[in-house]
Automatic annotation (TrEMBL):
The keyword Oxidoreductase applies. It holds the Pfam family 2-Hacid_dh. The keyword Oxidoreductase applies. This is D-3-phosphoglycerate dehydrogenase protein. It comes from the Bacteria. PANTHER family: FORMATE DEHYDROGENASE 1 (PTHR42938).
């Protein structure tokens, strides 16, 4: 049997496949035309943020399972997979600590304008410290939007390290570990010095942080997004930062145009290239988890992280 590896994954995950007799097939490009050309003959696919399109799924002739390397699965056409009897699952939680740590790092970097300060020093510009204002995180109020593994991890870090008051807006979360639950997003936004987004992209969360939401945000708040770009109306955020209502933003996810657009003109916006789960430790955990899901599905078992119900058996 074969498993198509759409994007590079940690070698330990590949080794696990090989030990089980699964031949890894490596895509030279994550372009879906290339994927569609290489997918015939493969029973499994492991993909990262490139996802898997309907065209690629329909080009398959032996496909039984698609595993998302990580939590976000909106780039996989699950409807097309279900129609073809293909199971889709993900590997949530394996990279959560790395995402939580990056969110915290972005919050600190925005609060102290670390990248802008570094650029000023390298350029020989004096007076940066006197021209800008900086804030602490200690004792502040944080709103966590989406209480999954990464959001909960950040909440615990903020409480333990900074004695922060942690608010949670997460309608689907059954338990928020004793932190304060917000029934309305606006109520949390009005109180929070830091807003960190960790919710999946769904129809009801697309554009969640829009002009209306930002009109409720506490003046001087910091926004961090390590979840999905579509959660934020970038034009509205740029206006809020330009007006001073939002102090700054740390964005690990954003549109292709954002760095060259209005957001990119502000030294109070920090961009990182989707680094959330890109630590050595997280990449190893996620690759091993992805490989295990492939092996489980190909043996006829249904992984606990299955995302769809194929119309025909995948076993």
């Amino acid at each position: 049997m074969k498993c198509l590896i759409v994007q590079p994954v940690h070698a330990d995950g590949i080794a696990l496949l090989r030990e089980a007799g699964i031949e890894p097939v490596f895509c030279p490009s994550a372009d879906m035309a290339t994927v569609a050309r290489m997918i015939p003959g493969c029973e499994a696919v492991i993909t990262r943020d490139a996802g898997l399109s309907a065209a690629a799924i329909n080009a398959a002739d032996a496909l039984r399972v698609v595993v998302v390397h990580g939590a976000g699965h909106d780039a996989v056409d699950k409807e097309a997979a279900s129609e073809r009897g293909v199971l889709v699952c993900n590997t949530p939680g394996a990279n959560a600590r790395s995402v939580s740590e990056l969110a915290l790092g972005l919050a600190l970097a925005v609060a102290r304008l670390i990248p802008a300060a570094d650029r000023s020093e390298r350029a020989g510009i004096r007076g940066f410290r006197e021209m800008e204002t900086f804030t602490e995180l200690s004792g502040k109020t944080a709103l966590i939007v989406g209480w999954g593994a990464a959001g909960a991890g950040l909440g615990r870090m903020l409480k333990a390290a900074f004695d922060a008051r942690v608010l949670v807006y997460s309608p689907r979360a059954a338990d928020v570990e004793g932190f304060e639950r917000m029934e309305k997003l606006e109520d949390g936004l009005a109180q929070a010095d830091l807003v960190s987004l960790h919710t999946p992209l769904r129809p009801e969360t697309r554009g969640l942080i829009n002009a209306r939401a930002l009109s409720h945000i506490k003046p001087g708040a910091i926004l961090v997004n390590t979840a999905r770009a579509g959660l934020v109306d970038e034009a509205a955020l740029a206006e809020a930062i330009a007006s001073g209502r939002v102090a700054g933003a740390g964005l690990d996810v954003y549109s292709h145009e954002a760095p060259s657009g209005p957001l990119g003109q502000s030294n109070r916006v920090i961009f990182t290239p989707h680094l959330g789960g890109a630590t050595l430790e997280a990449l190893r955990r996620v690759a091993i988890g992805s490989a295990r899901n492939v092996l489980m599905a190909l043996s006829g078992e249904r992984p606990a992280t299955a995302l769809n119900d194929p119309v025909r058996s995948y076993a």
